[in-house]
Structures are given as structure tokens and as C-alpha cells.
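Q: Two folds, back to back.
A: First:
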Amino acid sequence: MRGWVEPCGCTSEPLGGIARLARVVLDSKNQYGLGVSLIDGGDVLFDSLKPTNPADLCQENARIDLLLSTLHDLSCIGTFPGQYDDVMGVDFRDEKLKNHKLTNLTESAKNGFITGKDPAFRLGILFLDEANASSIDAKATNLKNEGAKAVVVVTHQPRSFFFAKKAAMPDKAEMPHVDIVILGVEGEETPPVAQKADSEGPVFVSAGKQGQYLGLVEFRFNKEGGWTLDDRQQKRQLRISLLTQRITTFQAQMNDSSDPTLKEFLKTKISDAREELDELAAQKDAPVTDRNYLVASTIALSRKIDPNPSFDAKLKAYESKIPELVAQCESKIACPEAVANEAHFVGAETCKSCHNAAYEFWKNAVYSVPATDEKGNSIERLSGHTKAYETLAEKHKTEDRSCVGCHTTGFMQPGGFCKVKEVGSFKGVQCESCHGAGSLHVATADKRQIKRAVPEATCRGCHHVPHIPTTESFNYEQRLTKILGEGHGALLLSKIKHQAQN
């Protein structure tokens, strides 16, 4: 989950949220009954390895409690904590797990255990680290001898541990008696396809990060013996994801283009993609009855999934408490002070006195983008750096400290603001968000005292998953065309357009 209880709302179609997760899990339990087990693979508590700021602790505690209570209420059998769970220390982590009656499965799963309420089908669970990798297959064999119909291994090792190292470390890569390996903390943005290391080995699966997807493995038991991967559904999901992203890209290109020929071409491409999407949605797979098989898939927790009402109510209750929680911790902090001879933030209104043309261009650089509403219906919404704070206001998140930093300027910085209600004139993504604190430049008019060229890394400080769909979906030069213009990087804009045409 990487700490997320709901999607941030910055993307055109944000994914995730515990209320949608609950809907899918509970629907699965209703469909399959006793045969459903929910396991957390790790990295659930925090989204960063940086120490938590004291000003954030009140909200963070409430968020973690909501997250863990949700897993408990969904009958999660336990968790395998990763490094993102230990940011506040293992004592903090273990106390939180204990309070919500969630079991740390790491130690017990090193030798393995069997779980499952349905006596006809029980799963063996193992945890693999580098120290016990060579003995995993023997332990899997023991579990099957004890009655496990299939064996699931959870690991925090990267995918490369099993694939790239196989030639050099065959004893650690070959696991013919293991059926599934869950890569619990794999940092993929979009879940990769389920894959086998070899024909006799297990299937490797992961569900991405930030709680945007739910990883689902279905075991369909028809007779005694091994398991075959049925990847028809998975391949179809990947194609649907690709076509959906393609439609979004083509639509954005249409909006940006004034060439009627290109617009007509893109319109045809969009129509073709939507037609194929309809065909894929209508496809049904014939059941496999002559062998055991497993289906590994990921469910995108999109807005088209209705949130579970009970869990959505808990989420809304948490959101309503955020202002009170934030104020409680902010009352105990001191804001960073400006230091003599060091740059501090001054705000866009100060920049305006010398850079009026750039200021006016920034103020008016607002454009329409395709998006979805809370029900997943297609809409258009306004976007742009100057609109950034307004998008928080629309979502009632102006006092959510996990959001404010990327929608304002100078948050927690000298000369800026450190308490959410004191944002003042620092609303929106202003000049200094990109060019750095401007006080020394203002005092001296020295161009060396300001960052003129803005590297891509600066933009990606905020434009990263889950605030964008994928890393590749943020095209640096394409985004520059939205924020450059007359009085603000016109020469660079002309070079970018020239390169694009050639």
C-alpha cells in the first residue's frame, strides 16, 4: 500500500483507495467463500524512507490506524514487513501491528505454515530471504507432504535475484515444488506480467505499489498434481491497459494540435482503440477442466469500482479529522527561519515587479485536460501550475500535509510557510517552485543567484507516481510546451517545437 488510504486525485484517473480495495476483496469472499486468503506482502505503512516530520505525526498516526484496521477488518492473515514499515523504528511498527491484531508472519513463515479455512484446499506459506533461499524447495516439499495443495512464497528479494542470478546460483533459483512467488515489495509502478523462471519453476507475481492495484491469484483445483499458468486474462488486461493509455495520449495530442489532418488521423486511431476495447471486454474464457491451473492477475482500483460503503464511511471520517489532527501537531512546531545571506522564499508577487510578462503568462497558463469524475465518467478539468492549489480546494485537501507541498510554494522552507492555514500568498506552483528561493536574486538582480535552467529532476519531485500514471507518462519537453511562452522561455519553446517538427 505504501501508506496510501486513498488516491491523491492529481491524475486524470487516480487509482487506489482502501474503500475500493475493500469492495473487491469482499466481493471475492462472497464469490469464493472460505477459499479466499488476504496477505500483505510488506511496505504498507509509509510512502517514503525519510524520517517523519513531527508536524505530520498526528495525521500519520491516524492514517496508519485506518490502514491497518482496514486490513484487519478484511481478515488479512498477516503481513511481511518491509523497509518502508520500519521508518519510525521496529518498536513503532510492532506496536501498531499489535494494536490492530495483525500478525508479523516473517519468522513463522521462514519454516512455513499451512493456512486456509477450506479443508479441501489449503495453502502452504513460506518467506524467502537470501539466507534461507537454498532450503526453500525442501520446505515447500514438507508443506505439501503435510497437506498443502499449493505453496506460496513471499519474498522481499528483487526479481533479478531469481532470474539474473540463476546461472550462478542454481540452488537458489530452482524451486520446482513452489507454485507462486509473491514479490512483496517490488517497486514496479504498473504490475508486470506473471512469469515463470523456467517450465518447472513457480510463477512470479507482484501487484505494483501505492495500493493502486490488487494482486489476485486464483488456484483452480481439478486433480492431484502440478499447476499450469493460465495467462489469457492477464494478457487481455495488459492489452486493455495499453489501449486505455493510448487513447489518453491520442486525446491529449488532439487537444494540442491545430492540424486538421492530424486531428482526423488521431480521431480514427481513438475510434479503433475503443472498438478493440469493447471486443476485449466482451471476451469470455472457456474453463480449463483437465488440469490444475492458476490465474494471476491485477485489478486496477479505478473509479469505476464503487467504494464499499462501510469502509468509505471510515475513510470520510478520517478525512474530516485531518484539519484537527494537523492543527494539533502544528501547534508544537517552529517554522524554519530565514538566515542572513542565505536565499529564502519571497513569493510570485515579488517576482512580478521585474518579470511582469513571465508572471502574466504563468497566471494564464491554464488548459483543459481529459479526466474522470468520482464515478469514473469522462469529464474535462482545468489544469496548470497556477491552478494547483485550487485542485486541493476542490478535493477539500488544503489542510492535508501530505498534499500541500506540491500544490503550493515554499512549504516548510525559510521565508515560506509551515502551517497549512498560513499559506497566504504561496498558493499554487509559483516561480520559486522551479527556480528556487529568490530573495538573493531580488536583492542583487544577479542572475547567478537564481536557477534559470530547470532540470527534469526538479519537475519529477512532484510529478511522480501516484501523482502521474507512470514515469513514462510524464514527457518533460511536452510539459514544457505548457509552461513556456511569451516572456517566459519563448526561445526554448521555439527550439522544442523545431525539434518536434524535425
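A: Second:
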Amino acid sequence: MNGTAARRSPSPSNWATSPAQAAWPSASDEPIGRASSGRERIGVVRQITYVTIDVTLVCLGGALVFSFNFGFRNLILTFVYPAFLLLYAALIVLACKGQHLYRTPKEQSGMEESLTVVKAVGVATALLVLVIFISGNKEISRVFVSYAGALNILSLAGWRYAKRRYVLARALRGDCASRILIIGAGKSGRAFAEWLDANRHLGYLVCGFLDKHPNGNARVLGSVQDLRRVALEQFVDQLFVALPADPELVKETFLEARRLRVDLNVVPDLYDGLGWHAPVHAIGGFPVLELHGQPIPAFGLAVKRAMDTILASVGLVLAAPLLGLAALWIRIDSPGPVLYTAMRVGRKGKKFRCYKLRTMVAGAEAKKNGLRGANQRRGPFFKIENDPRVTRCGTWLRKFSLDELPQLVNVILGDMSLVGPRPHPLDDFELYRNEDLRRLDVKPGVTGLWQVKARRDPSFETNMALDLEYIETWSLGLDVKILLRTVLVVLRAEGN
């Protein structure tokens, strides 16, 4: 953990209790469990983004209102007074900053945030009118400044409302939700779960409980001794201890959370010093002590996603002629469709349709079970060096990995990344051990560490070890290195 986080104690009257009050995850309120340094980095980026949006809208609104004052034919005259416009934007930013509009608590309702915008813009507008009066300027009408203030209230409150609706829609779909496992199905644990279930817009999804006394509760998935199994099976992101636990149990859970690379939070106690410098948060009135937070490079992941989208889009455009020639060759070489689509398992066990150029005869999947005895891979995945189902065209496409190019569409859709563990078929996924599920903590990739280091190694253990190495040591620099090494592997025609 990186220092002591500021303590926040939101008033119960500020809690959002309905979808209409959904709040945007602000800079100061990242999901519990992220390291403070990660929160600070993404917090700065978000605040800069919010300020940029506000300044842009204020300037556009000012130019529009002043153009009515001077007339559209003389629109250029609206910029004779850029100092006043920039001053107005600065005053609004300072007023919004003073009202904490760039660090909005999650529990604040949409109506409360809109009223705060009214207050901030009103103060800034009044100050601008005062400055204009003192300066003795007679050409800028106070009435039109009032119009600009009204327009700014609508635009600044409007984009924040649109942002809330967007986040609410994603939260209700379960996108980017933090998966929660609660240790303790007692009164406080159940109340905590009920509050999170009623406030899905905050981004938490309760997977269930661990408790030695199920008491007929269907959401109890096992006892504390089943923590590792349940956490892996449910793709848990955070653990919450909500029972009168003895210090030894909490310390054991702390060690297991570190091994699983998940976040651990407890209803606070000092626990032999583990919580002395831990940040305290409040979620729905429940005080939560963060004992261990796995750092999540949120800004880095955002850059990775942007890089994926840009490079995949450019790559798809550049590869279009090659894909067209390959499609023609496939149709001439053997009967059947050009594209091969199949369900694969992605991040957190999410299934998606994966696209490839067809390199096998039609109906190849039906022949797979008959070839299981010739499988040259060890573990839960299937590969034959000279697979009889592969067509002549497919042999060449595989050598240069051209059959993988349609997966750039999967990258653009967000199901895959350019770099990550390779996605496995559903039948291979069914053979996973619990420990193997850790490779699904990230999005699968078009290429990965295994492809550039040990592509022909038949051992699933080697594959798994390299996937986990990638997950645990991930950085943007590592992604770039893997992409460059992939180009060399493709040029050497090492595919099979």
C-alpha cells in the first residue's frame, strides 16, 4: 500500500438509491482496492479531462452568445474580447474546483451535482459582471453575460448528466463491475450485500458469501477454507471480511489475497497492526479498511485500449488487399466459407465469437474428437503438427499467421487485445484446473509472450507459466516488445 488515503465519511443523506441518481466514478472515488498511487494517476488525468471539457464548453457558449450580441456577420468581433472569455472560463473552473465538481463523491445524486453546477456558474458569472463593471466596458452587455451563464449551466450540468447515464448503462450491463466475495453471511454481511445489490451503479457485483454456517442461504458458496477455489471460479476482484473474525483468520486471508492478486477489505479492526496505516473508506455507511490493494495501472490500461483500437483499425485497413486475396484463394482451394468463427473464452470467463480465416476443411470440428489420440500438446489444449484437416491454402496461411488477421475485428470490438494470452476453445476451457483460470484475468490477445518465446513447446505448463509472467509483469513497454518480436516470428514463417 502506498501511504494513508484520505478518510471520507459521506452523509447518509447523500447516498444514491435509484438509477436516476447514478454517479460517475470520480477521480477521488476509484473502486476500493486500487493502490493509492494508481488512484492518484487516474485522478489527475480525469480532473484534467473534466477541466478541458468545461473550458471548451464555456468558450463555445461565450462565442455563441456574443455572436448574437454583435451579429453573425461580424462573428469575428466576438473574439475582440478574448481576455474576458478566458477570464470567465478560469472563474468557472475555480468555482467548480471550489465546489468539488472535479472530485464528486459517488454517493452524490445527479440533482445535487446539478445544483452545485448552478451555484458554481452563478458565482463565476457574478464575478465576471463585477469585473466588467469595474473595467468600465460599455460594449459587453450584462444581459448577454447572464445568457452565457444560463447556457453554461445547461451545458456543464448536461454533459455531467450524460456521463452519469453512460456509466449507469454500463453498470447495469455489468461492464467493468468489480466482482465481490464477502466472507461472512451474518447480519452485517447480508446488509452490505443488499446495499451493493441495490446500488449497482456504483460498480460492484456480489458473487456470493463464504461462511461455515450456510443457514439455507443459496448465495453461500463455501466456507473460508474454500476461499482459493471460489475466488478463482468466480473471477473475484475483491474480498470483504464482514464477520467478527479473529486476527489469525484475517492474517491468513490477507496472505491468500496476495497470492491470488485480489484486493482485501475488512470491516475495520487493527488486526495486530495490519490496519494501522490502511486507508478507510465508507461504502453505504459501512466502514471498510483496505488491508491489501493490488495496484492496477488504470491509465496504462486506458492507453493500451487506445493503442489496440488505433493499431487494429490501421492494420485492418492495410491488410484489406491481402485479406481479399486470401479469401479468393480459400474459395478456390476448398469448398466452404472464407471465415471460420467459433466461440472462445475471454476475460473473466466471458464467451465471445472469434474470427479467423478458414484453414481447415469444412466440418473440421466434427472430426476433432477422433483425432484426440494424436494430440501433441500436453494439458487442456489440442494441436497436431501435421493436422490432416488443414487445407493446402491453410498450410501457407498458418505459416505466416495470416489466418489470425480477422481477429483485429475482435480487438476493435473489445473482446481481445493485440497482446495477451491466446483464447482457448470452449472444450479446452472445460479441462482447466482452478489454477489455470488465472490466465483469464486479462483480455486474450492476437499474440502473446508464449507465441514469441515458446511457440512450439508442447507443454501447457510452459504456456501457462508464460501467460502468468505476462500478467504479473505487464507494462506498455512489454506489449511493444512482444509486438515487434511477433513481426520477426511472422516473417520467419514459424506458424503451424
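Q: And?
A: The first helix runs from residue 36 to 70.
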